Amino acid sequence: MKTFLIVFSLLASVLCFIIGRYYTSSFALSPNTTRVFWVMHIMATLTILIAPIVYRLYPTKDPGYFYNSIQWMGYFFMGLYSVMIIIILINDSSLSLFSRFSEVSHERRIFLKSLLAFASLSVSGVVAGVGFFDARKKPDIKSVSIEFDHLPESFHGFRILQMSDVHVGQTIRGDFVELIVEESNKLKPDLVVLTGDLVDGTTEQLKNELLAFDKLIAPSGVLMIPGNHEYYWGLEEWLAFWEDKGFKTLINEHILIEKNSERILVAGVHDYSAQRLSNQTISSPKDSLKNAPMDLVKILLAHQPRSVYSASKAGFDLQLSGHTHSGQYFPYNFLIYLFQPFVKGLHRFEKTWIYVNQGTGYWGPPTRFGVPPEITVIELKKKSASA
Asked: Domain residues of the chain, as ranges?
């Protein structure tokens, strides 16, 4: 915890300096205006520092107006500045290259730098502002049909509703949970699966914010697996919490879902990165199939897409994942492809299908510019003989 706070504080401080230095050197500001800018800029940076630290050190079940305001301001500026820093780096690199290969006067260079700085402010403001409304809106409903050769006839048209990465916590509260549960129930799925990162906080902090999940219904039940964030906030407490709600948690294990005497298999695993925390939390698709009949359609719930490599070796037909948020907002919705093998939507790896939900909520900055939140309905279909 101390290491996290120290590293986070240092990064925020460096970010503050780079952004402040860039804009004060790009615009011809008077000394008084420069001082006002730095005061406001430092105060904004302090909210970025204070918001997550206070949330961790002084958790509360009933945050007051001031506490809530700090959370919202801190995470809003975190999103705004995280866009700014990328655009600033692009601006400086572009201007340096342009100056190197073209004859540019000093006056022309100052003008171009000011113009680029103004453009970066405009773009960052639009991304943060529009992205805020996109993040808080009703999630898009995405429908996907997947065909299987050996799907039992009884499961043709079987509908699985997937929610992932809701991140109830600092700025996502009970009203949003009520919204997504209501939308989910309207779709009348056969099965609901929650593929991790549902929360950011302790059970004591968030239990009252999660009451609407009691209303989540499906004939074949509600299944859930943990994401990496559940491990940060007390895995055992959260698993017990969801079990008390009647949800089935799957940790390197499977269940059989039956319909008209025919069956499919659904398994779940620890989060891919959990083994860094303990050798007792290793993610193992293979172990999740222990003593399982292998001739069934097999579906794996795995928070991170990277699990698909092991899932394919274990013989799974479909993996449902989340985690990536598809980058969550510009420009990270492009940069995410540098770090994740599968970012969003439906893909095929060898003989295994994988669907990546791009997030029903959001983490940290309340923005989803260009990457709307989603609830997914996956319809299983039996592949026809002619196909």
From this structure: 2-136, 140-382
The model carries a pTM of: 0.93
Contact 308, 343 (CB under 8 A): no
Give the model's pLDDT for residue 1: 59
Question: Which residue is associated with the tokens 């779940």?
Answer: 268
Collect all residues with Cβ–Cβ distance below 8 Å to 298 and sequence separation of at least 6.
Answer: 254, 264, 265, 266, 267, 289, 292, 315, 316, 317, 318
Kindly give, in sequence order, each residue whose CB lies less than 8 Å from that of residue 232, ignoring residues fewer than 6 positions away.
Answer: 200
The residue ranges of the chain whose pLDDT is under 70 are: 1-2, 58-63, 385-387
The domain made up of 140-382 has a fold known as Purple Acid Phosphatase; chain A, domain 2 (3.60.21)
CB-side exposure of 100: number of CA atoms within 13 Å? 6
Compute how many other C-beta atoms are within 10 angstroms of the C-beta atom of residue 197. Answer: 27
What is residue 81's three-state secondary structure?
Answer: helix
Give the neighbor-by-neighbor strand order of the sheet with 248-249. 140-148, 374-382, 159-163, 191-195, 222-225, 248-249
The CA distance from 9 to 53, in Å, is 10
Question: How do strand 318-321 and strand 352-356 relate by DSSP bridges?
Answer: parallel
For 154-185, the pLDDT digits (tens) are 999 999 999 999 999 989 999 999 999 999 99
pLDDT confidence of residue 60: 64
pLDDT number for residue 61: 59
DSSP string, 234-252: -HHHHHHHHHHTTPEE-SS
Backbone angles phi, psi at 321, to 5 degrees: -135, 175
pLDDT of res. 36: 95
